[in-house]
Design goal:
With 197 residues, the protein is mainly β. It folds into two domains: 8-84, Elongation Factor Tu (Ef-tu), domain 3 (Beta Barrel), CATH 2.40.30; 103-195, Elongation Factor Tu (Ef-tu), domain 3 (Beta Barrel), CATH 2.40.30. It has three helices and 13 strands; from the N terminus they run ββββββαββββββαβα. The protein has helices spanning 63-68, 160-165, 183-195, and strands spanning 8-18, 21-27, 39-42, 45-48, 51-53, 56-61, 79-84, 103-113, 116-122, 136-139, 142-145, 153-158, 176-181. A seven-stranded antiparallel sheet has the order 4-3-7-1-2-6-5. Strands 11-10-13-8-9-12 form a six-stranded antiparallel sheet.
Length: 197
């Protein structure tokens, strides 16, 4: 379980393809603190640390993960948001994030708002029931608040600190982003859907 509060960014330094899997070597300030078999959020995707070499660590994404995330876009030089799991005695600063990406969305528009930045994000209409006005959304692993929500678009605002300390500072229109909808909303939607059958 994660919170959507990014601890650091890392940089992909090597990508290896084996069958339908992709392995990534990532350099980050936290890599040397990781442990083998530890679950770590990378752009909102929960991946297992397999190897550690100094300031770098290796993770692998299987076919299912690659189909639902933007990890197929990762190349050497890609900047990645990183967060370790929420400790049992820790504070929940953002919202409950599983690290299980639901779908990728697309950055439609980026606007500077006199100190902050707005991003309009497009997403598949079939997920519209999972996002509400002023509700939580996890975008590339970052806990944000959605507004101006309709059936295919929503907007998030990012303060300068978040912009500087995450990979959204490089996000441009047309770029793919990982989206995880609010966990509680998904359970409530499931309950309502089953009750209506």
């Amino acid at each position: 379980m994660f919170t959507g509060i990014i601890e650091a960014t890392g940089i992909v330094i090597e990508v290896n393809i084996t069958g339908t899997n992709r392995s990534f070597w990532i350099q980050s300030p936290l890599s040397s603190e990781f442990k083998i078999d530890q679950s770590v959020s990378h752009n909102g995707v929960c991946l297992t640390v397999e190897e550690i070499q100094g300031q770098t660590h290796k993770v692998t994404a299987i076919y299912e993960t690659l189909q639902k995330t933007n990890l197929t876009d990762w190349n050497a030089g890609t900047i990645v948001n990183i967060e370790r799991c929420l400790p049992v005695n820790g504070r929940l600063e953002g919202h409950f994030v599983q690290g299980h990406v639901d779908v990728t969305g697309t950055c439609v528009k980026r606007t500077e708002k006199n100190g902050s930045f707005e991003f309009v994000i497009g997403f598949p209409e079939k997920f519209a029931q999972l996002i509400v006005e002023k509700g939580s959304i996890c975008l590339n692993g970052i806990s944000l608040t959605a507004y101006d929500v309709d059936t295919r678009l929503f907007t998030v605002a990012v303060i300068p600190y978040t912009l500087e300390h995450t990979n959204v500072k490089n996000m441009k229109p047309g770029e793919s982003v990982n989206l995880e909808f609010d966990l509680l909303g998904k359970y409530i939607n499931r309950k309502i859907t089953l009750s209506a059958v």
